[in-house]
Design goal:
single chain; alpha/beta; Spore Coat Polysaccharide Biosynthesis Protein SpsA, Chain A; ten-stranded mixed β-sheet; two-stranded antiparallel sheet; 6 helices; 16 strands; globular; disordered C terminus
């Protein structure tokens, strides 16, 4: 019998969408045909509200712990909980990611070593250029006494590292949507990933550095890469997309521009529904 641990890693910064998140988890449990236990591990000075009825533990970080250190240690506590509890699968979830209600059923039935649901992250790209002063389009630069500019774009991309033979790179939107169903990938964010017990046992702990380098990386990337090197396979289910509600708590970015698709007319700005006053 399949026994799934839904491991939830949270902290006060995700309180802005906690009610929505908990409701989504309840719907997942109601729709799952297998045994599911929810284990919530949180850190913070405030009381952890909203997870009534779930198993909740508090993690107390050391004074020297950075955010990424806390993340790594909490992931390893969740991993150990899954192994000690005899669970067949661990579904790792982050509390600003909302999942479709059928996600656990689908992922178990795929019967893969690891399966992930794509969700969007922000990719910042910059480009440097020199602009000729005789180009009237860029006359405004004269008042700044410069002919050099840096272009910055923020793009939404899936948190997926694709696999093409022996090469890999982050997916763009153009990689996600043409590919349907299960697509083998090399790594992904761990905010919506199911991992079989044997993978947890053999790959070992989450880490910030691999054995052959001192260069720090994110835990999800290193875990997936080590699993790949050991012969385990990770698949992205492009038919099951999770919704990443990442919020920067920057009031200047709390608006969305809307356009009419017929004539591309700017319809103006709509406030972001997630307000800083919900932050605990």
């Amino acid at each position: 019998m399949h026994k799934i641990l839904l491991g939830i890693n949270t902290y006060p910064g995700h309180a802005f969408c906690r009610n929505e998140y908990v409701e989504s988890i309840k719907k997942i449990i109601e729709n799952t045909r297998y045994s599911v236990e929810v284990y919530v591990l949180w850190n913070g000075n405030q009381t952890c509200w909203g997870f009534d009825g779930f198993n909740v533990d508090k993690f107390n970080p050391a004074k020297s712990d950075r955010g990424i250190d806390i993340l790594c240690k909490k992931q390893n506590i969740i991993r150990k909980y899954a192994l000690d509890g005899g669970f067949t699968h661990l579904f790792m979830s982050e509390t600003d990611v909302l999942h479709p209600c059928n996600i656990l059923n689908s992922f178990v039935e795929h019967d893969k070593d690891m399966v992930t649901s794509p969700y969007m992250i922000t990719s910042t790209r910059t480009a440097y250029s020199k602009i000729p002063f005789d180009n009237p389009k860029y006359e405004f630069l004269k008042k700044y006494n410069t002919d050099s500019v840096i272009f910055v774009t923020n793009d939404k991309i899936p948190c997926i590292w694709g696999l093409w033979g022996n090469r890999s790179r982050l997916w763009g939107l153009e990689d996600l949507f043409p590919q349907r169903g299960l697509v083998r990938v090399i790594s992904s964010g761990i905010g919506a990933m199911m991992i079989k017990r044997k993978v947890l046992e053999e790959v070992g702990s989450f880490m910030l550095r691999s054995a052959d380098t001192d260069h720090q990386q994110f835990t999800d990337y290193l875990f997936c890469i080590k699993a790949y090197q050991m012969g385990f396979q990770l698949f992205a289910d492009t038919d099951i997309i999770s919704n990443h509600l990442h919020y920067d708590f920057d009031e200047t970015q709390m608006f969305t521009n809307w356009f009419n698709p017929n004539d591309i007319k700017d319809l103006g700005l709509e406030p972001n529904p997630y307000s800083a006053d919900k932050y605990e």
